[in-house]
Amino acid sequence: MRVTLLGGTGFIGHHVARWLVEADVEVTVIHRGQTPARLPSVRALTADRRDPSSLRAALATAAPNVLIDMTAYDADDVVGLLRALPTSLERLVVISSGDVYWTYAGFLGLMSAAPPTAALDESAPLREQLYPYRGRARDVDDLLYRYDKIVVERAAQDGADAAITILRLPMVYGPGDPHQRVATHLKHFQAGAQTFRLNPDEAAWRCTRGYVEDVAWAIQLAALDDRAAGEVFNLGEADALTQVEWVRAIAGAAEWPGTVLVESSEPATLPANWQMPLIADSSRIRRTLGFHERVGREEGLRRTVADQRES
Questions:
Q1: Residue 125, domain member (yes or no)
Q2: Contact, 210 vs 236, CB < 8 A?
Q3: How far is residue 254 from each of residues 182, 188, 227, measured CA to CA in Å?
Q4: CB-CB contact of 209 with 171 (8 Å)
Q5: Is 258 helix (H, G, I), strand (E, B) or coil?
Q6: Which of 12, 309, 311, 310 is nearest to 186 (CA)?
Q7: What is the CATH number of the domain that holds 148?
Q8: Could you tell me the pTM of the whole model?
Q9: What gap in Å lies between CA 2 and CA 63, rounded to an integer?
Q10: Of 43, 44, 52, 94, the residue nearest 228 (C-alpha)
Q11: Fewest CB within 10 A of the end CB: N or C in the chain?
Q12: CB burial class (10 A; 0-12, 13-18, 19+) of residue 228?
């Protein structure tokens, strides 16, 4: 089998490539050349997905049976890709996000609704409000202006001739996380503070997270298993920690001797609706494909903390 990653050198992609290599498939990474490929056994091709001719040439050279699109952020990204797909392609795996669900609009304050009573499965309603970050964009060329995984999913499902698999990712943490979901707290601990204070509403808020190597394992599993064709899967840990549990888990991994406190006088870190949880039910991929974490939260946090300290 030949598997190609479109964008496979970054935070999540290079772990996907590593798991695919261990599965003994032929792996090609197509990237813009800004970040070098990290695995010598992976063929690297340079192309910009917004340059139709270079993308078409790279895909023709790779001739994948399965293509994993790590970097589709708007409908134009998908439309351009569909025009460049080679005849060898049997399945397209689209990396999406849990932010497609209606609860994310509620969390951002884009709508008013009561919180859900259970974790959302893949059949849950999606956001009605498109382009959720457009209000934060600097201009029309800003990624925040055009980003929306809902339109990415729809464009792929409506336009692709190959079978589609959609994977909705959680909040991913691990070494190299550009959002610093662990590093932000770790820096506070390393600064010598003896307490960490949380706003009560934020402390009780829950969301689904996933360690980067485990998320990458789920991606390669879905890419190689024909049972994933035509399916949509939520990825992420089976249990969603509250924010205070999350901070305490990081503190434990860092062996920080201080105390995490919940205090009504502490302001929230973001102007969000902390009454709205962002919890996705990942039981379908576990049940259908037999997914389970290869690393897990405890070891994942330990690795993340160790990497942060080294860097």
A1: yes
A2: yes
A3: 10, 11, 40
A4: yes
A5: coil
A6: 309
A7: 3.40.50.720
A8: 0.96
A9: 7
A10: 94
A11: C
A12: buried
